[in-house]
Amino acid sequence: MSTERDVVVCEVGLRDGLQNLDRVLDLGIKKQWIKAEAAAGVSEIEVGSFVNFQRLPQMADTAALVAFAKTVNGLKVTVLVPNAHGAKLAIQAGADRLSVPVSASESHSQDNVNRSHQQMIAEVVAIRDMINALPEARRPLLEVGISTAFGCTIEGAIAQSKVVSLARQLVAAGADEIGLADTVGIANPIMVRNRVRSVKDAIGWHRLTTVHLHNTRGLGLANAAAALEEGVKTLDASLAGLGGCPFVPGATGNIVTEDLVFMLESMGLRTGIEIDRLMQVREFLAKHMPDIPLSGFLAVAGLPMAWTQSSPDIVAQNSTMPTG
Amino acid sequence: MSTERDVVVCEVGLRDGLQNLDRVLDLGIKKQWIKAEAAAGVSEIEVGSFVNFQRLPQMADTAALVAFAKTVNGLKVTVLVPNAHGAKLAIQAGADRLSVPVSASESHSQDNVNRSHQQMIAEVVAIRDMINALPEARRPLLEVGISTAFGCTIEGAIAQSKVVSLARQLVAAGADEIGLADTVGIANPIMVRNRVRSVKDAIGWHRLTTVHLHNTRGLGLANAAAALEEGVKTLDASLAGLGGCPFVPGATGNIVTEDLVFMLESMGLRTGIEIDRLMQVREFLAKHMPDIPLSGFLAVAGLPMAWTQSSPDIVAQNSTMPTG
Questions:
Q1: Cβ contact A300–B185 (<8 Å)
Q2: In this complex, is the C-beta atom of A107 within 8 Å of any C-beta atom belonging to chain B?
């Protein structure tokens, strides 16, 4: 397939999906998953996180996964790092992009990483310094993902001004890029539009690249479409929607990679991903985790009759969406 | 609750939902359903259809339901009528709004109502004449819903120009309003934007009022948000998403009323519908049809913490959506 992409779909199932499971998926299976998704055309995968492996044993093989993923031609390898120590390990492993979660909710930040905003900003400064000390060719991209950017299960509503102010501080602290994450599935399309636009206005349009959405209340794809219309270029998603919240039985997790790719390609936006091959990776997952419920509509309904990827006649019909 | 509404949510579960079930729901249950949803603030309900009752026995009590629904204060009562004969019965029963399905796909039209486009246009002319012969105060609104307006399971793609041309002809034939229906769940947000806008441009902005969406591939709410942004004021939906296609096991049907209301109210768009009471009607349905699988995300995940309906501080944040 063409490698020209209008939208980058970043697979986060290996991190956000697997960290929520009550088991450790075999390293060999994870490698096959990465390889197969890359072969389907996925150009960016968050392969794991450098966290406390005693707390999250599912992530203990992250260094090995980064090393493996770096051998896959053209793949951009992202890892989540909660602090400077994790960033050091990620840099040693050779990750292309570090994603540091900083929660807009101070309570969530304490719960999740046991640190206040000021402490997290200090971590970002330390990571920036660590990166700048590297030879230029070896420097990974430093993204800070603002979690609970649309609301929090502990604090409830999170003011937009708080998110904007935090984004500004994080860029000042050294973040190359800012992402906004709807960690608990609270966002709606208006909120996404408004927050994306306000943050872009505050920190520069090129610096807000990624939106991370959950489909907890079924609004995930509506929110994704809103983000695209505000110029977001990278959307996180998880194959089969892996990553349901363990505290809400039956609640779905991240937006479903295959449903998102279907929506984007139907809209004429090129993802570079072959949907048939992506569905095969889903089947691979189903085979190796037969007891894990998989989400997603496309897998049930199938592709529409005579459907083609990025159909150019659809794009030609007075599109109002960004296509380049 | 306030009866001021930014968006009208029209409940179609009693028609599009029940017609797909393999049983006939008791008339008394249907009446309670109508009464409870109206009490929750739903202002428009499609209560049934005047079709061949031997083919669709689920709809045989439509006249009784119209009569009952007309006793519910302030409720706009819609029925589906496939032809002039059905329209005559609907007028006798006292319906406020007739919805005539005309398929953009000629093959689907033959399959569904055994009539060509020209025959269906002739039916619309006959219905218009029938309505015009009534005293002005008794005239129902004549809506024509263009089904398969975004694609068809028999013909595949349906050209936008065909939909626009059909809409023009139907207005010329006497339709007060045109609706666009994604009968088989193929639409995407760009397609919705483009087709809604093109049809509005062709027939006048006030004449395209309703969009009818299915959630077959999970894009229903994304398509709804796109329709709203193009000025659509009425969205059909079905409580618990009743109405899955009998030919696609597990495929969901109409967009879910309660998820749609949640999205709209979260966006600050007033629906006039109390979500807590709507969820009670869902529970009523679950109780009376315990073996029917119910769709919907909100029912699983629940409302977010501290969530309020049509939160004004969200509306105030530079909304780009129509709110009046």
A1: no
A2: no
Task: Quote ipTM for the complex.
Answer: 0.91
Give CA separation, A21 vs A25, A100, A242, A247, in Å. 9, 21, 9, 12
Scanning B119-158 for CB atoms below 8 A from A yields 151-154, 156-157
Q: Give the separation between CA B79 and CA A261, rounded to whole angstroms.
A: 37
* Alpha-carbon B155 to chain mean position: 23
CA A140 to chain centre: 17
Q: Which residue has the tokens 């994304």?
A: B222
Of A188, A217, A259, which has the smallest distance from its Cβ to B301's Cβ? A217
- Residue pair B241/B252 in contact by the 8 Å Cβ criterion: yes
Handedness of CA A192, A195, A196, A198 (dihedral sign): positive
* Residues 193 through 212 of chain B touching chain A, CB cutoff 8 Å: 193-194, 197-198
Q: Best interface-test mutation with B: which of A164, A190, A309 has the largest number of B CBs within 10 A?
A: A190
pTM of the model: 0.93
A143, two tokens:
């993204």
How far apart are the C-alpha atoms of B49 and B33, rounded to whole Å? 17
Closest C-alpha among B145, B295, B315 to residue A193: B315
Cα–Cα distance between B294 and B291 in angstroms, integer?
9
By the CB < 8 Å criterion, does B308 face chain A?
Answer: no
Render each residue's pLDDT in chain A as its tens digit; 324 residues: 456 899 999 999 999 999 988 889 999 999 999 999 999 999 999 999 999 999 999 999 999 999 999 999 999 999 999 999 999 999 999 999 999 999 999 888 888 788 899 999 999 999 999 999 999 999 999 999 999 999 998 888 999 999 999 999 999 999 999 999 999 899 999 999 999 999 999 999 999 999 999 999 999 999 999 999 999 999 999 999 998 665 556 667 899 999 999 999 999 999 999 999 999 999 999 999 998 889 999 999 999 988 888 754 443 343 344 433
